[in-house]
Amino acid sequence: MTDIAIGTSEELLEELRSWVEIETPSNKPEAVNTLLDKAEAGLRAAGATIERIPGRNGFGDTLIARTNTGSGNAPVVVSGHVDTVWDIGHLGSDMPFRIEGDRAYGPGIYDMKAGSFLAFNAVRAILTQKIPTNRPITLLLTPDEEVGSPTSRAPIEAEAAHAAAVLIPEPAGGPNGCAVTARKGTGRFTIKVEGRSAHAGGNWTEGRSATVALAKLILAVHAMTDLERGVTTNVAPIWGGARANVVAPEAGCHVDLRVAVPEDGAIFAQKIKDLAYEEDGIKVTVTGQINRPPMTESPEGLRLYEAAKALAARHGYDLPKQYRGGGSDGNFTAAMGIPTLDGLGCSGHGAHAPEEHIRWKELSQRGKVLADLLRTL
What we know:
This protein is α+β, with helices and mostly antiparallel strands. It has two domains: 9-183 and 295-376, Aminopeptidase, CATH 3.40.630.10; 185-292, 2-Layer Sandwich (Alpha-Beta Plaits), CATH 3.30.70. The chain contains nine helices and 17 strands. The chain has helices at 9-20, 29-46, 109-128, 153-160, 210-222, 262-273, 299-314, 330-335, 363-376, and strands at residues 49-53, 62-66, 76-81, 98-100, 103-105, 137-142, 165-167, 179-183, 185-194, 232-240, 250-259, 277-279, 282-292, 321-324, 340-341, 348-349, 357-359. The strands form four sheets. Strands 1-2-6-3-7-15 form a six-stranded mixed beta sheet, with helices on both faces. Strands 10-11-9-13-12 form a five-stranded antiparallel beta sheet, with helices on one face. The chain has a four-stranded antiparallel beta sheet with strand order 4-5-17-16, covered by helices on one side. Helix 3 (109-128) packs across helix 9 (363-376). The longest helix has 20 residues, at 109-128. The two termini are 14 Å apart.
C-alpha cells in the first residue's frame, strides 16, 4: 500500500500553527468562523463538496466536507471541533505559540486543533492525490463541543446515522498516546437559590441567606461522588450575594456530573434535580440534564481499534487503548450504535490547562494512521 503523502511533522506543525494562532473560544462565533473559512478554502480547492450550516444561538457555523471517492458504500465520518476553552487574548499573553524541544504549546493545540487539523489534512491529501478509498469520507468541523455541542449534535448524528464508522480525532490520551474506546457520560446542571435580603446587622433575622443554602447544596452534590461506581460530581463556578453587609438574596452554581453507565446517568441526574425545594423563605430551582450518554466499549468499536493499532504498528509506534473520563462527540455516535473510535489526534498533555501542549514530532505518524483509516475502512 503506497503511503499517502501528508507532509513531515515539521511541515504539519507550521500549518497547524496558523490554526492555533486564530483564537476560537466557543462563545466567539466570528472567530470560530474565521478558522472555518480557512479550512473551507483548503477543502474546496482540493475538490471537496462543501455544506456549511449557519451558526445559531451565539455559536459559529458547522462545516461539512464530502469526498466522491468510494461511492456506493456507506461513508466513514470523521468529526472534530475547532472551538476551545480559551478566551481571546491568551495567545498574546500567557500562552503564546512556542516550541520547546519535542513539545509545541498554544491555546487549544492539544484539545483539539491538532486532531482536527490532521483530519482536515488527511481529507485534503486524499483528494489532491486522487487516492482511491473504499468508502466516501465525510468530514465535520464543529463550533461548540466545549460547551456540550448544542448546535452541532444534530448534524453529527444526522451524518452518523448512515455511516459505516465514525472517527473522532480528539487528543490521544495518557502518557503513551492511547486511542479511546470508551468514555464516561456527562451531565450539566444549574442550581439557583432565591433568598431574602436584609441588613446583615440590624435586621439579620429577617433575611434568608441564599449563600448559606447554596453551601449546603454544594456539600450534598459533592457527597454524590462514588469513585468505585465511576460517578463524579464537580461544582464550579459558584456565585452569590452582592455586599458583605447584606444577607444574600440570590446564589447559584453549575454542576458537572460524570457517569460510567447509562443507568447511573438517570439515577444521579434525578438525585441532583431532587435538591430543588421551597421552604422558610428559600427557593431552590435545578435545571439541566445528561447531555452526553456514556460511550461504552463495543465489539464493533474494538474492531476499529484493532485496525488502527495495526496501522500504527506499520507506521512505527504502538497504540494502546484507554477508557477516559471526559466526554466527546463520539459519545453521541457510539450511543446510536455506530462503530466509533476516539482519541485519534496527537499525543500531549494539559487539556484546558496553561501547560497545554502536543508532542509535535508525532504529527506525521499519527496523521498517516488517520489518513490510512479513512482510505481502508
